[in-house]
Amino acid sequence: MIELIRREQAEGVLDDRLSVEWVQQVLWGVSYTAFEQVEQGALAEFDVAATVTRTLEQGITVQSGDRAEAAQQS
Q: Of the candidates 19, 48, 60, 61, which lies 20 to 30 Å from 3 by C-alpha distance?
């Protein structure tokens, strides 16, 4: 998982201003929460992957404005 996160940061997909360990812990935390929500009946099983993905995409990916800024600094 750590290597995947590093690769995605190097490719500019994930925000490299966040530590790899932080990203990994956020992934585990969001995943745990999603499964807990399924167990409580608040989230359908088939929605877990999309919910976790959407949450992570909005929270740890590089946003378009950040990409433009990073490109200018290169």
A: 48
Rounded to an integer, what distance in angstroms lies between the CA atom of residue 57 and that of residue 42?
21
Q: Which two tokens stand for residue 65?
A: 């404005």
pLDDT confidence of 19, banded at 50, 70, 90? very high
Q: Which residues contact 35 (CB under 8 A, 6 or more apart)?
A: 48
DSSP 23-61: HHHHHHHHHHHHHHHHHTTSS-GGGHHHHHHHHHHHHTB
Q: CB within 8 A of 26, min separation 6: which ones?
A: 56, 59, 60
The whole-number average pLDDT for the span 29-35 is 95
Sign of CA dihedral 40, 45, 51, 56: positive
Residue at token pair 């800024």: 69
